[in-house]
């Protein structure tokens, strides 16, 4: 309470209407919610979204031959009583189709980061309008697991691990009508244990509020949701219900004993606010990493708080100058290279264009010049040798006056001759 | 996305058999033109309850400033508004106490609860305003305080690792007390409101309105409104921030008829017609504070607390704060370097 006294009121003041005032404003403003669906081509993403929100999210069926994973977003407005919801569904296209799936998760991570980046950019603007900004940050990621009945695939683990610190992940089993009732519990258990043993953080429905903690704890035990979706409706009795009609029976999408689709819908709706809150926390993490990368610190040198704007401006200037310098460098190098190449080319051309005889002539003349040079060198060397012999003679004569002469001279002369032969 | 042609003929049949949408909450329905109608209940409207629950858990901050010459009944009015002793009344200056040489800023915080809603209410008093011989620039300490709160918030917002909920000390509402002279506004009133209406929501009130008759009151209010308009002073609710037609019609009525509210405050109760009411006892009768025939206190209370409390905060956050922030980030040299007051400088009512 930071030192504030609690006062008791002597009569009704009326600020208990504050939540209502807030709600009224929020309703006027509208809500938005963004769902990301990750799953293989054909696993039933569009069908499930259509079933969950009772609107047609049909897409043209995509090919299996895309070279990389792409993402496609669709936005629609839904209204229920007086709540206006701007719903955006983002779906992966071509996920799991490539031969080499090592980089499949990257476009997804990039997309999520791009939404955070866009929000951060808006937040950092000098004149900004956060109030009317259309928030595109992903609030929940529905990860579709293939109904193999066995376990998770490597790509599942790889993708979820790369996302679990950026978005709320709810794992679901797509096309769950292909798994029998007896196989399903085992499959679910296997999946959950694999997620835990691989340290993958999935979204846990909050259990701190007493009114929902019981339901949420039970629901947490139902994960992953085994869902079935359908674009078509089947007439049962005198009602049209979303269902899949097989020769052996009808799978009703909204029947909780047939599949968990209704559970998923209920959980998404009743925890929308919590999902948005947790997304804000992920955003704060992104923001912190991003700003730290830019070199921002909360405490600058001399322990004075640094203005973010100043730091960004300084960094921007730094980068700009660096860019300019690099550009100049590259330009210089390019010019140099061009000149070198041009010179080389010219010489080669000259060589090539000379007729053979002139070339021969040219070469001979070169040889003659070399020979002349060598002759000259030889002469100089011989002169030096002669000089040396003379000097030697003089020294020895002086020496012989003092001691007995040695046959060194003749050996030396021999050595000298050897040298002059090599020159 | 629209339902395909195959489904259209079944839509009518569908809608009769679909369960009824949930009970509409108290808030009135807004007419919208949307091309998608839901067949079957989804549960999106539960977000309202989630939102309400969340806000009740986190609680609210509200900071109200009172400005006016001493003796106009500021403390009494605030206590009457919030039905508790939020302000300590100054019993006038006796010879031992000194009149403050400049305007002082005293912020005192309290926590009050009603209907499960917890509110941290901070009342910011400005003793010394308008009490000196020379009152030129006496709004400056007040403007400085208001800007300091914006600065504090900005610093928190700009942090790398920032708090989940930034403590809000920004002044959401400034009640300016006009002397009930019956003539017109004083130069001090105009100067103050001209400077401060650009940085904070100002709600002018006519203090001690029990000194005027009904006719005098109406005339005075008209004259004050005229003078404010002539001087280009936009008091809250400002015309340019009306969000839609609904807001505009509601606020026009308040701007052109009710404001400035002519109020009387009291924390004493008297028996009138078998009921205990707040009032002032005089030889010629009891003035009932919450009786609309006697004064407009109830209008002020409803306006500030029961209908526009959230809006006061939103205008402060989305408009006044953003204006400050933009100016601060744009011309780094424009504003002098701020020295933010630390906790020690604030008085706390311990």
From TrEMBL, chain A:
Cited PROSITE patterns: G_SEPTIN
Keyword GTP-binding attributed: yes
Molecular function via GO: GTP binding
GO CC terms in record: cytoskeleton
Gene3D superfamilies listed in its UniProt record: P-loop containing nucleotide triphosphate hydrolases (3.40.50.300)
Key words, A-Z: Coiled coil, Cytoplasm, Cytoskeleton, GTP-binding, Nucleotide-binding
Domain Septin-type G: start-end pairs: 29-293
Localization terms from the record: Cytoplasm, Cytoskeleton
Coiled-coil boundaries: 331-391
The keyword GTP-binding is assigned to this record: yes
PANTHER family: SEPTIN
Family, similarity comment: Belongs to the TRAFAC class TrmE-Era-EngA-EngB-Septin-like GTPase superfamily. Septin GTPase family.
Protein name in the entry: SEP10 protein
Naturally occurring in which organism (per UniProt): Vireo altiloquus (Black-whiskered vireo)
UniProtKB/TrEMBL annotation, chain B:
Cellular component GO terms held in the UniProt record: cytoplasm
CDD domains: CDC_Septin (cd01850)
Stretches for region Disordered: 328-350
Chain segments annotated as coiled-coil in the UniProt record: none
Superkingdom of this protein's organism: Eukaryota
Alphabetized Pfam families for the sequence: Septin
Record keywords, A-Z: Cytoplasm, GTP-binding, Nucleotide-binding
Molecular function terms from GO: GTP binding
Keyword Nucleotide-binding: yes
Locations listed in the record: Cytoplasm
Protein family per UniProt: Belongs to the TRAFAC class TrmE-Era-EngA-EngB-Septin-like GTPase superfamily. Septin GTPase family.
Protein name: Neuronal-specific septin-3
Annotated organism of origin: Vireo altiloquus
